[in-house]
């Protein structure tokens, strides 16, 4: 069996990665990746995976190709599973063929995992079908940057110039004036549409359409940079008509998500769907308790409570883990009433066979208390499974109403990051537009890592808070949230972000 995999990472959008590629990334012992392979894929690597960056961009080589070849062979001979992750497809201007030859000469078995190439994907994301019956029935992929050591060019400009094919040039931005001139000199009309797509399929994709005569001049005026592809042909005239990706409401907007990693996927996924450049910075780590003896005792005595109030998804999950550990299930809730502080918590209960008796209209403790009192909770025995450290409003108000309240810690939260250097660097580079906070804890932990005084140096960055309690915590640091939804939920927060981005 092969222990080296030449894997195509696709054009950059994580959704364009193949299932087979993800399998290899998750199981490999050594990851050797390129500049154009989305570094986000590295989060799928095993904790003990050795990760090596060998990227090349614009003449800046971390390792020259011969040393990359040698590195792959060296690691493979150790018996480890090697993932050589390359942007796009390994065999489309990815030098995968050269790496494969090197492995054959070394007697090492390998497997190729094809990837979606940018010449098709980036064009599609820019609204350009590379073939279209009204324009062309063929497409030609061409390198825009040949091997400088070759004795003669492999280009046949006469064929390119006279062809009716769509021409897609890779790595050609630096040679754009030469490419345009050679095509015109060899028969392509000066008014032939030309499109440039930079960072195709990623949240920072940009593109524009010009023509052969003016494209080099316009690219220079725009200070256009690599990585980009160049598309030449009548299909480029469909860019404005069929373009869809660059119409996403939050395209290119840098958003920091501070939720715990276990809870962030929903918010991250929705924001990315809207085009945002999401940077995960989980300021909270949700951890189990060291000792669950107290929780086990409470579960075994659950029948003495008239109400159980769950205040978070994590509370449900960790409570149920202990419930199952002692051989019990949802039937233990028979005869009592259950409340959920919000729709996500309610869904977590429904997934375990419990339909909540009460979900407040406003998802903060004060409204929970009001609704519970209207439902006759006063004087009841109440159990509240929650975090070890949390706001005391709910238990305090219920006790004031004559309830016998038991607060039951079932998990704890800790600081989720060691340093805020990554965020400070992103802020300094102007890559961040929004910072989202979904609880008071995320605010407090964020500003423990990123000092509020330093954050004030970036007044253009807008704080988005999920609700008034979280906003009050932001104000304690001398800052004012710019965004607070009327509906204190993740969907409400996303809607508010989209409206703000559209307004700006």
UniProtKB/TrEMBL annotation:
All copies of domain Tetrapyrrole biosynthesis uroporphyrinogen III synthase, residue ranges: 267-494
GO terms of molecular function: uroporphyrin-III C-methyltransferase activity; uroporphyrinogen-III synthase activity
Key word S-adenosyl-L-methionine present: yes
A Gene Ontology biological process term: cobalamin biosynthetic process
Annotated transmembrane regions: none
UniProt cross-references to Gene3D superfamilies, sorted A to Z: 3.40.50.10090, Cobalt-precorrin-4 Transmethylase, Domain 1, Methyltransferase, Cobalt-precorrin-4 Transmethylase, Domain 2
InterPro entries xrefs: 4pyrrol_Mease, 4pyrrol_Methylase_sf, 4pyrrol_syn_uPrphyn_synt_sf, 4pyrrol_synth_uPrphyn_synth, 4pyrrole_Mease_sub1, 4pyrrole_Mease_sub2, CobA/CysG_C, Siro_Cobalamin_biosynth
Pathway annotation from the record: Cofactor biosynthesis; adenosylcobalamin biosynthesis; precorrin-2 from uroporphyrinogen III: step 1/1; Porphyrin-containing compound metabolism; siroheme biosynthesis; precorrin-2 from uroporphyrinogen III: step 1/1
CDD domains for this protein: HemD (cd06578), SUMT (cd11642)
UniProt keyword list: Cobalamin biosynthesis, Methyltransferase, Porphyrin biosynthesis, S-adenosyl-L-methionine, Transferase
EC assignment: 2.1.1.107
Tetrapyrrole methylase domain segment(s): 4-215
Enzyme class: transferase
SUPFAM superfamilies: HemD-like (SSF69618), Tetrapyrrole methylase (SSF53790)
Family: Belongs to the precorrin methyltransferase family.
Matches recorded under PANTHER family: S-ADENOSYL-L-METHIONINE-DEPENDENT UROPORPHYRINOGEN III METHYLTRANSFERASE, CHLOROPLASTIC, SIROHEME SYNTHASE-RELATED
Name of the protein this chain belongs to: uroporphyrinogen-III C-methyltransferase
Natural source organism: Pseudodesulfovibrio hydrargyri
Gene: nasF
